[in-house]
Amino acid sequence: MPASAPTKRLKLPLAVVCHDAGGANQIIALLSQMSFAIGDLRPVMQGPAAVLWQRAFPDHALIPDVKAALQGSAMLFSGTGWASNLEHDARCIAQAMGLYSVAMLDHWVNYVPRFTRSGHRQLPDALWVSDGFAETIAREAFPATPVYRMPDYYLESQCASLPRVDQLTDPVALFVCEPSLSDWGREQRGEFQALDYFIKRLGLVGISASTHLRIRPHPSEPAGKYDAWISERCNARISLDNSKDMSAALGNARWVAGCQSYAMVIALAAGRTVFSALPPWAPACRLPHPGIIHLHSL
């Protein structure tokens, strides 16, 4: 289905509920294309989403309680994160209130578990996606639920200000981290295994030993998580990336690596060389985008 205009499908007042950064970024970018009066948006934001929302919509104050936000709203617009029950609970409450509910799928993996908590599945009335890959996956996973494709305003916004690869004067390699939630049977968290796997193969993929490597934590990860790993390398060319957003982090990056992060898709759209650093003993990268180089296949 072709991308459609979001303004035709949103009803005001709009309850917006997000926790994880992925869904929040997509929803905020979409809402930023529209104009709202005070009171039109009734946001409940927790975790990484709270910071993103207050940066984008400082005039639309957060509401601390989901039920209070849904009362008097015309519909619910929620993310589909895995790091909390906030969005799932909001969909449950919306259904009990007879409130129309839309949820934004922000990635390409784990669609069914996103809507299940403690064995209870709660689907929205409709699903929104941002590209054709996600649309295909969502239709296969939820054949009875309407799926609508929206413009990917977040991807467009992140790529808009990035220089072309041939304009980079001091290119760096960027590793975009994400929690793996598994040690793949090796008694070390998977994200650190992927980092080590990438480091050992820099020469294989044509990245010079003199190239600076920046490590960018995922928004859901605690501060200082990668400090010890960086310190143990005793390498001045390896440092933490503290850029304000992904666009800034990608600005000087010529090569981008990760496991299966959305940031890799942004990098690919911006013309960067992108690697999946998942080692051969890990589950395969599930990003469906052609152009990603899988290190384990080299």
Describe this protein's structure.
With 298 residues, the chain is of the alpha/beta class. The protein folds into two domains: 153 residues, Rossmann fold (3-Layer(aba) Sandwich), CATH 3.40.50; 137 residues, Rossmann fold (3-Layer(aba) Sandwich), CATH 3.40.50. The chain has a six-stranded parallel β-sheet, sandwiched between helices. A hairpin with a 2-residue loop joins strand 5 and strand 6. Helix 1 packs parallel to helix 2. The model has no long low-confidence stretch (mean pLDDT 93).
Residues in helices, as a percent range: 25-40%
| Number of helical regions | 10
Name of the CATH first level of the largest domain: Alpha Beta
Beta-strand content estimate: 15-25%
- Helix-strand string: EHEHHEHEEEEHEHEHEHEHEHEE
| Rg, Cα atoms, Å | 20 Å
Tell me the span between the first and last alpha carbons: 36 Å
Largest sheet: 6 strands, parallel
> How many domain units?
2
**Strand elements, count:** 14
CATH architecture of the largest domain: 3-Layer(aba) Sandwich
| Arrangement of strands in the largest sheet | 2-1-3-4-7-8
